[in-house]
Amino acid sequence: MNVKDMVEANTILKIKVGSELYGTSIIGSSDIDYFGVCIPTKDYILGTQKFELLEERTNPSSSGRRNISSDNDTTIYSLQKYFKLLSDNNPNVLETLFVNKENIIYSNRAAEEILRYKHIFLSKRAYYKFSGYAFSQKRKLLTKEPIGLRKELTDKLREEMIRRGIF
User: Fold this and answer.
1) How confident is the model at residue 19 (pLDDT cuts 50, 70, 90)?
2) What would the DSSP string read from start to end of 35-94?
3) Which tens digits make up the pLDDT trace of 86-117?
4) Contact residues for 62 (Cβ-Cβ < 8 A; gap 6+)
5) Fewest 10 Å CB contacts: which of 20, 41, 55, 79?
6) How far, CA to CA in Å, does 47 sit from each of 51, 52, 108?
């Protein structure tokens, strides 16, 4: 069985993330991003085969083309990698524990148990991870030169932050 078939057969959780999750998608122009978790088969768990994540992109970043509404990005992690990222308080992964039901595409009993006991993955270290992430996003906002529609949105956000005295 190839990796893609194994992942498809053993996915326990698949959710919408990105702009769809945050409610910031733009109808007709935003792509859809998916995040998932699978329990690998014994060959992958025992180490005779290797699997941490499967990424599929309809528009690879190397294309130089901006994503459009027909594009989607999917990242499926092995359960082991998912737990490692949760334990490390990775902000992009921790947020998957708190996704609203409307954005859950698929979950089985194993995934529901993980979501039910989400509190065991939270620690005070999350503060430092999230604040570091927020500062890096602020730095990108201030230093990167956005283009197109994103430029308009970024300019509005900058103006609002300046008006509120955030920076």
Assistant:
1) confident
2) EEEE---HHHHHTSS--SEEEEESS-GGG-PPP-TT-EEEEEEEHHHHHHHHHTT-HHHH
3) 999 998 899 999 999 999 999 999 999 999 99
4) none
5) 55
6) 9, 11, 25
Amino acid identity for residue 135 in this structure: F
pTM over the 0.85 mark: no
- Within this chain, do residues 159 and 98 fall inside the same structural domain, yes or no? no
The residue range of the domain holding 154 is 124-167
CATH code of the domain covering residue 100: 3.30.460.10
Total count of domains within the chain: 2
The arithmetic mean of pLDDT across residues 31-50, rounded, is: 89
Closest C-alpha among 96, 114, 94, 85 to residue 33: 96
